[in-house]
Amino acid sequence: MSQETFAHVSNLVIPTATVIYVLAMMAHAMEWATGRAAKAPATAAPAEQPAEVLVGAASPVGGAGAGESGSGGAAADVVRAGAGDAAEKAAAASRVGLLLTWLGFVLHLAGVVTRGLAAGRVPWGNMYEFSITSSLAVAVVYLAFVHRYKLQWLGLGVTLVIAAVLGLATLLLYTPAGPLVPALHSYWLVIHVSAAAISGGAFTVGALISILYLVKSRAERRVLAGGIMSPSLKRLPSAEAMDGTAYKVLAFAFPLWTFGVLVAGPIWAEYAWGRYWGWDPKEVWALVTWVVYAAYLHARATAGWRGRPAATIAIVGWLVFLFDFVGVNLLVSGLHSYAGV
């Protein structure tokens, strides 16, 4: 196949993968909606049973009380059956969403690989290519951890982020495949950018978990105060478990970011520009990102800084990473303005 053919295949497969991710997102949205419906009738069932039923059940005379008790039991059985059906539908929607995510991932991977074959190099030499590669990294991290940490409940957020990034990249950032800028001709490109992409994917997954952690912890506090929790939120793990999962994901990402951005990056800069560090805007914001996540890990490991404060720092770190990834390239002029990293 010629490079033009590979480019055509990539340009066809990436939008197709975007559509598949959107379908996966819709399946996960249906999972949440169906899970909410599964619990809705159950709270009303006890109130529908009149007080006389309980009195009649205790009376030695069966009469009307026994009949009402029987109908109340039947009504409860109907509610339980309906809740069971809805739970099965939610589980089925979850499985469909995960299968579609896998299908989208395979097409996404094919699109990134054929883009590289079309360009005759690694496919992350500009913002478009880094966007499709970094969003692929989000899918890789999610699918790698989905069974180990039972992260199916994160599918809606993950597919939303991936579909949004791919859609924006295709519509706004697309650049035809071509040769690299001379400064990028180095094997450090592979090391630096691949480490940044994988750690960025992990930062995204960790931030999504942290956002849901804040929602779930607030709901748990309402329950302790005598309130009730949304049926959808009951399907999430406990806030404590989510806090631990976010920490594990971000602890995995931080060493990668440290090596790829603050070790391999300066070495590559010395090769390309003759200096290790020049306080270029991209370098500065990469360092700021590192500082925020270092503060997160320190806060998470310090007594009293787990939970909400640590989750807030994780979300701030992700926002800083997004600005480093997108904002610096689009809003600030610097040596990295031609590239995605």
Automatic annotation (TrEMBL):
Organism of this sequence: Kribbella voronezhensis
Membrane association type: Multi-pass membrane protein
Domain Cytochrome c assembly protein: 124-336
GO molecular function: heme binding
Keywords for the protein's UniProt record, in alphabetical order: Cytochrome c-type biogenesis, Membrane, Transmembrane, Transmembrane helix
GO biological process: cytochrome complex assembly
Pfam family membership, one: Cytochrom_C_asm
A cellular component term, taken from the record's GO annotations: plasma membrane
Protein name: Cytochrome c-type biogenesis protein CcsB
Domain of life per record: Bacteria
Subcellular locations according to the entry: Membrane
Transmembrane spans: 12-30, 96-118, 130-146, 153-175, 187-215, 249-269, 284-303, 310-332
PANTHER family named in the record: CYTOCHROME B_B6 PROTEIN-RELATED, HEME EXPORTER PROTEIN C
Xref: InterPro entries: Cyt_c_assembly, Cyt_c_biogenesis_CcsA, Cyt_c_biogenesis_CcsA/CcmC
